[in-house]
Amino acid sequence: MTTLQVVRTLECEGLACPLPVVRTKRAVDEMKPGEVLEVRATDKGSVADLKGWASRIGHQYLGLKEEDGVFRHFIRKAEEADTKTEKKHPHTTTNGEIHSKISSGTKLNIIDVREPAEYAFGRIPGAISIPLGQLEEQISSLDRNKEYYVVCRTGSRSDLACQILTEKGFSQIKNVIPGMSAWTHELEQD
Questions:
Q1: pLDDT higher at 87 or 183
Q2: Number of neighbouring beta carbons within 10 Å of residue 78
């Protein structure tokens, strides 16, 4: 069996989105191309977040090992020529705008890409749950002709989801920022 040569380990246990990705970006920036970073996180969302971030930038997501609730992610830094500039989805809306539309009776198609437990503890009324890690496999259940508002905890995961949906031919996609971490209006709960 081959042993993976990890150059640095980054402890992100107990941190929630977007912190594992933010700290991973910083750590990778300090590394040399070809070096491997191990990121240890307990946030289930980190599985989709880190894999998505690495592929969007051009770094190699080598894999994941889960041990006792800790997700050990392995990422190899790409050569400078193989990396891409990180981009943001250009179409956004605010929590206030969403609340205003809901209050006026407008029916919105809201996709909540947080993990199921986050969704269960409180969501925007009417939002459907499609965790980011399951988005591509559930994309066929969505109508490409409809307008969708995508929300997560802070706007990071939902930004990635918006980019994925846009790449798959959806043209009316908006990222809800700053997301559920700052939602102060009515919530639905399980």
A1: 183
A2: 17
Residue 143 main-chain phi, psi, to 5 deg: -95, 115
By C-alpha distance, which of 152, 118, 154, 153 is closest to 135?
152
Q: How far apart are the C-alpha atoms of 149 and 174, rounded to whole Å?
A: 5
**Rounded to 5 degrees, what are φ and ψ at 111?**
-110, 125
Is pTM beyond 0.85 here? no
DSSP per-residue letters across 24-47: HHHHHHTSPTT-EEEEEE--TTHH
Residue 12 is among the residues annotated as catalytic for this protein: no
The one-letter code for the residue type at 104 is S
Which of 126, 181, 140 is closest to 158 using CA atoms?
Answer: 181
pLDDT bracket for residue 1 (50, 70, 90): very low
